[in-house]
Every structure is written in structure tokens, then in C-alpha cells.
Amino acid sequence: MLPVQRFQSFDGVSIAYRTLGEGWPTLLLHGFLASAESNWFLPGIAAALAQAGRKVIAPDLRGHGRSDAPTDPAA
Q1: Least crowded by CB within 10 Å, which of 26, 30, 40, 75?
Q2: In this predicted model, what pLDDT tens digit does every residue of 58-75 receive, in sequence order?
Q3: Cα separation of 21 and 44, whole Å?
Q4: Is the distance from CB of 18 to CB of 36 less than 8 angstroms?
Q5: Residue environment code for 43-66, b if the CB has 16+ CB neighbours within 10 A, otherwise e
Q6: Are 9 and 62 in contact (CB under 8 A)?
Q7: Can you give the pTM of this predicted structure?
Q8: What is the pLDDT, as a whole number, of residue 58?
Q9: End-to-end CA distance of the chain, in Å?
Q10: For residues 68 and 12, what is the distance between their CA atoms, to the nearest angstrom?
């Protein structure tokens, strides 16, 4: 699996994401109760897009996958 990269959200929550390929950027957002890994990487969709010349950017949304899941209601 690809290494996970991270950035800090405006409120300090750590958001995980993966990138694959080069070319025109394509942002893939997973659905509810899922992650980028389960929606895009495991089924091979991200790899197919990268092979087609796209740069895949796939974040794990807040509280999902490898992103932080803050318990504070303000977050």
C-alpha cells in the first residue's frame, strides 16, 4: 500500500491522504462509513486512473480511515 501523507486542517485535525500517478489531478472522495483505501485503492480504481495518465489524490475524510477522529463536538 502507498505511504500515507498528512496535512493539518484549519483546526489542527490531521487529515491523511495518498497520491498515485502523474498528470491531471483527480480528487477521489470516499463515501460514508468508508475510506480512500476501501473505496479506491483495494478495488484497483486508483491504479486504473493512474495508468490512464491521472494523478490520483485520495484523502481519508475527517473521522474516517487514517485521519484523526476528534471526539470534541467543536471539532
Answers
A1: 75
A2: 999 999 999 999 998 877
A3: 13
A4: yes
A5: eeebeebbeeebebbbbbbbebbb
A6: yes
A7: 0.89
A8: 98
A9: 29
A10: 10
